[in-house]
């Protein structure tokens, strides 16, 4: 199979590399010339565990290459994947389809033989039909079908998720396109996993429904955590207790500082917008968005309380600012609400993050970046554990506390326990949803 992958972000690059590892010939395209230059030098522009080795292996095998020349990549490809960004459009919550439609126009001009144009980006219902119209209008001779193939990989575990998916969803209009899609994913069939072939609209909606459901689940436990604090219950126990119920399941029940990332915030906003556009407001999703915002702001108040009412003049060490561990992605991370509140309140903020600095520097002005958590905590008034990187999961709490001006910790990921923190010498330990 010859595949062209348009867009080499988290999704496009991981998908392109993994497809080449299946044995397909993959050409990855990006209009960002710097990205392509780095990729051609064997450098991976994002942080994703394992991606560099897999990329190197497949480039060496001659199955994977990178170019800025979309037409050359599309020429002769049997499948052209669109994996460009679909950020929130300014002002109205809609998914911004500018990049998708621009890619479709370019693909239309470059199509030579029959190809399936596959949208991997997360897009609103109706987008694949729009892509079809754009291509047919731009190139009436083009012999092509469209397919929807939403991606469910998680940053930080992207390769594993791509190679061992819970399911693959494919939306098509005819058998011909279904066969091409089946051929692309055939190498995965050896492992037993469901491939769901459906219509375009259902495939498009599955992605948004999945993300909105997960956002609701995490927000539910975050809200219960707030109640736990009022009534003296422990949200970890509550989550365990409900998670044993097979209908609920134990995943995605870790209370924390609110969801962020490149997907949940924009996808819930886009889904809510789709509902409004169809005169069917999605009240649960809309509420989830609102509650999640409140959760992030509640964290700021929690930190202020821990600092006895004011950040002014305090030194605060923040451990972890990426939206989750094992990624350098800062998009919509809770740190983008919390850190500016600390800085704005007059705190001196020191930040440690194993991969976040390159992205984070421009987003978090006025902080000092440091390498070592103990050094960051030296003479500090508060340590905030914000992203649960492995590096912060087994800290020597005694050492941490010993170096601090006033040993206070806000553990917003519930990694430690009140007992261990107290024993290590922390005078104040606050967590999320753990008692009064
Ligand atoms: P990204 O912003 O990291 O990457 C998009 C890339 O596309 C950029 O490198 C950009 O330069 C390139 N691009 C844009 N227009 C182009 C064009 N016309 N030609 C060539 N290149 C072009 O985005 P991402 O995080 O990889 O997300 C891509 C899509 O996948 C989004 O719709 C997102 O919602 C969806 N998705 C993301 C994730 C995730 O974890 N990041 C998971 C599942 C689905």
TrEMBL record:
Its EC number is 1.1.1.22. Keywords: NAD, Oxidoreductase, Plasmid. Pfam families: UDPG_MGDP_dh (PF00984), UDPG_MGDP_dh_C (PF03720), UDPG_MGDP_dh_N (PF03721). Gene3D superfamilies: Cytochrome c1, transmembrane anchor, C-terminal, NAD(P)-binding Rossmann-like Domain. Residues 317-418 form the UDP-glucose/GDP-mannose dehydrogenase C-terminal domain. Pathway: Nucleotide-sugar biosynthesis; UDP-alpha-D-glucuronate biosynthesis; UDP-alpha-D-glucuronate from UDP-alpha-D-glucose: step 1/1. The keyword Transmembrane helix does not apply. Signal peptide: none annotated. It comes from the Bacteria. Coiled coil: none annotated. The keyword DNA damage does not apply. It catalyses: UDP-alpha-D-glucose + 2 NAD(+) + H2O = UDP-alpha-D-glucuronate + 2 NADH + 3 H(+). PANTHER family: UDP-GLUCOSE 6-DEHYDROGENASE TUAD (PTHR43750:SF3). Belongs to the UDP-glucose/GDP-mannose dehydrogenase family. This is UDP-glucose 6-dehydrogenase. It comes from Leisingera aquaemixtae.
């Amino acid at each position: 199979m010859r595949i062209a992958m348009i867009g080499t972000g988290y999704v496009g690059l991981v998908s392109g590399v993994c497809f080449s590892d299946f044995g397909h010939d993959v050409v990855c395209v990006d209009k960002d010339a710097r990205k392509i230059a780095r990729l051609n030098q064997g450098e991976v522009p994002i942080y994703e565990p394992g991606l560099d080795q897999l990329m190197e292996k497949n480039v060496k095998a001659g199955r994977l290459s990178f170019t800025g020349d979309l037409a050359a990549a599309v020429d002769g490809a049997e499948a052209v994947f669109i994996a460009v960004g679909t950020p929130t459009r300014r002002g109205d919550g809609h998914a911004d389809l500018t990049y998708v439609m621009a890619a479709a126009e370019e693909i239309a001009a470059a199509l030579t033989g029959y190809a399936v144009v596959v949208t991997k980006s997360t897009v609103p219902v109706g987008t694949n039909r729009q892509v079809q119209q754009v291509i047919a209008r731009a190139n009436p001779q083009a012999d092509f079908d469209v397919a929807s193939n939403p991606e469910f990989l998680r940053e930080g575990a992207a390769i594993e998720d791509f190679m061992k998916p819970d399911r693959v969803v494919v939306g098509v209009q005819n058998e011909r396109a279904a066969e091409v899609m089946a051929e692309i994913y055939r190498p995965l069939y050896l492992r037993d996993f469901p491939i769901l072939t459906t219509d375009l609209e259902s495939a498009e909606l599955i992605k948004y429904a999945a993300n909105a459901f997960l956002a609701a689940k995490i927000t539910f436990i975050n809200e219960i955590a707030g109640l736990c604090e009022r009534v003296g219950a422990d949200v970890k126990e509550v989550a365990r207790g409900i998670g044993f119920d097979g209908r609920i399941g134990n995943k995605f029940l870790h209370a924390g500082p609110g969801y962020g990332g490149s997907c949940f915030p924009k996808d819930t906003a886009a889904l809510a917008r789709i509902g409004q556009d169809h005169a069917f407001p999605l009240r649960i999703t809309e509420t989830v968005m609102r509650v999640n915002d409140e959760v992030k702001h509640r964290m700021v108040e929690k930190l202020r309380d821990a600092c006895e009412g004011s950040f002014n003049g305090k030194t605060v060490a923040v451990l972890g600012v990426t939206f989750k561990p094992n990624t350098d992605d800062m998009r919509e991370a809770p740190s983008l609400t919390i850190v500016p509140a600390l800085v704005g309140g007059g705190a001196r903020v020191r930040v440690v993050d194993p991969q976040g600095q390159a992205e984070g520097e421009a987003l978090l002005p006025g902080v000092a970046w440091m390498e070592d958590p103990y050094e960051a905590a030296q003479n500090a008034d508060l340590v905030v554990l914000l992203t649960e990187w492995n590096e912060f999961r087994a800290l020597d709490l005694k050492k941490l506390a010993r170096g601090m001006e006033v040993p206070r910790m806000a553990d917003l990921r519930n990694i430690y326990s009140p007992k261990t923190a107290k024993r290590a010498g922390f005078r104040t330990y606050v967590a999320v949803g753990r008692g009064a």
